[in-house]
Amino acid sequence: MRWTMLAALAFTAMSGSAAWACSNETPCEVGERAYYVALPEGQEQPAPAVVYIHGWGGSGKGALRNGGMVSAFLERGYAVIAPDGVPREGRSGRSWGFHPNSGRQLEEISYLHAVRDDAIERFDLDPERIVLAGFSIGGSMVAYTACLDPNSFAAYAPVGGNFWRPHPTECAGQVRMLHTHGWTDGTVPLEGRVVNRVPVTDPDAFAQGDIFYAMSLWRETNKCVHLKADRFVTEGQFWRRIWDRCAPDSALELALFPGGHAIPRGWSDLVVDWFEGL
């Protein structure tokens, strides 16, 4: 694919040091884990970037094989950084310690910081224009990072995943958040769901959270004036609810699409258009 060739050419032109020769196929090592990267053609200096967190059972390398998503970001001039989660015990693929009961939230956020900082140095990225995005539990990792350390990234764009139960009761500070979700998502329903038959009334249940609750917490965090959205966009693929009257330098939007648990066509452009319009 074109972006694979471009990434390879970009790294050939870089330093000959093996530590710097990483790409969409060769890992950039950070501690005991790694990330993978695809760079845009004619990269602007310094370039904006999307740090994309894979879902359950995925990997950074595998995430960059989503050619439609990645090429759309590259064509808009954005580098795509895809970090590895931790190996899943007893099975293939990787996951994230996103849940409050995992005991690993802060460790995961520190790792994302390390990936961010390493990529900024290696590839001359603009630290003020890095979006943290992710799918499914990758989206949940995005949400908890935004909640616990809102200044980690310039903006946050989870798709198909946000908070789990027990829901957070507050977040550390205002954010720029675009949440995207499938109207018929049955894996992560908009209302949440029970996992392993744990009653949803159990306050300690390890269960997917309610997306509508998440949006209410983000409205409260961003000090939005009303519960009701200030603007509605219903043309095109995405039906969008946008809260404008919120704290300065914050942003909040919910985008729904007619589909299930997937990254919808056009999502990359939606993210870039939203971020550049802030």
Task: Set out the fold topology.
Layout: H1 2-12, E1 28-30, E2 33-38, E3 47-53, H2 60-63, H3 67-75, E4 79-83, E5 86-87, E6 94-95, H4 105-123, E7 125-135, H5 137-148, E8 155-159, E9 164-165, E10 176-182, E11 207-208, H6 211-221, E12 231-233, E13 239-243, E14 251-257, H7 267-276
Parallel strand pairs: 3-4, 3-7, 7-8, 8-10, 10-14
Antiparallel strand pairs: 1-2, 2-4, 5-6, 9-11, 12-13, 13-14
Helix pairs in contact: 3-7, 4-5
Salient structural properties:
Rossmann fold, 7 helices, 24% strand
Brief overview:
By secondary structure, the chain is α/β, with parallel strands linked by helices.
Structural class of the helix and strand makeup?
alpha/beta
**From N to C, what is the helix and strand string?**
HEEEHHEEEHEHEEEEHEEEH
Q: In what order do the strands lie side by side in the largest sheet?
A: 1-2-4-3-7-8-10-14-13-12
The largest sheet is: 10 strands, mixed
Cα(first) to Cα(last) distance is 32 Å
What is the CATH topology descriptor? Rossmann fold
Q: What is the CATH C level class, in words? A: Alpha Beta
Proportion in β-strands: 15-25%
Q: What's the tally of helices?
A: 7
User: Rg, please?
Assistant: 18 Å
Q: What percent of the residues sit in helical stretches (DSSP H or I)?
A: 25-40%
Query: What would CATH call the architecture?
Result: 3-Layer(aba) Sandwich
Query: Average pLDDT value?
Result: 90
Low-confidence stretches: 1-19
Gross morphology:
globular
